[in-house]
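anyone else get weird line breaks when pasting these?? whatever heres mine. first is seq + tokens for prot A
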Amino acid sequence: MAYHYDIPVWSVKSSDKEEGKPDDECRCLLLHSDKQLLQFSIRTGVMLRWVLFALLIGICACAGEEKKKKVKSQSLSRGWGTNIRWVQSYDEGLSKMVKSQKPLMVIHHQENCPYSQALKRVFFADKTIQKMAKEDFIMLNLVEETEDQNLAPDGYYVPRILFVDPSMTVRADIVGKHSNRLYAYEPGDMAHCE
């Protein structure tokens, strides 16, 4: 049992384009059996599904990569300055410090500490400090303590800021104004950094 299907494909004469009338001559696609029509439809459908699937995967991959970059940048800055290039660990900071010959600034803080949050807001808002941090230092902010005892010369408290010079020496002589927490800084102290 063979069925013939005539599927018209209309063409339009150039003089009839405005009116959209079909041409008297029509071209027809003639498929000779149901089986051929079904095979044509299945192949076309499968190909279309694969193309759509590949397109979806490509879009998701691109969006994922962009999100990873943004999340990594945000997670390293932790709100202290998104235009600053932050290092991920103390060891990475020491390595970059030696290569660049720029001092390392290590900011110890806690997310749930109101003093850390107040210092962070002032640090982030001050354009001069942001520029200095970006251009003159290797920057690291830590919410976890390091194994290096030199980064806690007078105890473990937050917020505290310590500096390490390119000779790998923690600069114990650069202190804040408090005698009981030498490396603690408050929002008002940021004016003295400029």
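and prot B, same format (seq, then tokens)
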Amino acid sequence: MPDEDLATLRQFLRRHGIHVHFVLNEIMRPVLAQSKLRELLPLFVCRNVLLVSAEPRARELLRALRGAPQLTLLGAVIDDTILSRRGVESLAQLPSLELSQAQTAAALSLLPSQTSSLLQQGPARLTALLDEHARRLRGRSAGNH
């Protein structure tokens, strides 16, 4: 990958909180062998680039890699879960946590208002029926006088 392309990629990724690390397999393989991520060992056979971020940034990662055909996404570890490329692509299609929380809150707040409306319909209907009955009674008593 040309240095200029790599610098552009690094800048784009850094803007999204993703850091680029080049790690030698001689260093990475012994560390992985003794970690809970040892299932990743088969992926470390040639030159590897680690992209690291504090928060899951699947959408931004895939967007950056589309512009860098020299880099192939083999997988990812997100929230202590090993994902394949397809898993990362699926994760990128999910709505953000904030959007999901807002949608859930909206749905949950709708239920109490609907319940309240349903409960108020009974007394409101009863009141309307009683008002109608009282009007009829007044109409009869006015007609009798």
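btw re prot B: The longest strand covers residues 18-23. The radius of gyration is 32 Å.
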